[in-house]
Amino acid sequence: MSLVPVEEALQRLLSDAEPLGAETVALADAFDRVLAAPLAALRTQPPFDASAMDGYAAKAADVAATPARLKVIGSAPAGRAFQGTVGSGETVRVFTGAPLPAGADTIVIQENVRDLGDGTIEVQEPSSEGRNVRRKGLDFNAGDVLLKKGRVLDAAALSLAASANHPALAVVRRPLLAIIATGDELLPPGSTPGPDQIISSNAFGVAAAAQSVGAHALDLGIAPDNRDAIAAAVRQAAEAGANVIVTLGGASVGDHDLVHEVLTGEGMTLDFWKLAMRPGKPLMFGRMGAIRCIGLPGNPVASLVCSQLFLKPLLAQLGGRPFSQNIREARLTTNMGANDRRQDYIRARVEQTGDTLTATPFGVQDSSMLRTLSEANGLIIRAPHAAAVEAGSICNVLMLR
Question: How far apart are the first and last CA of the chain?
Answer without folding.
Answer: 35
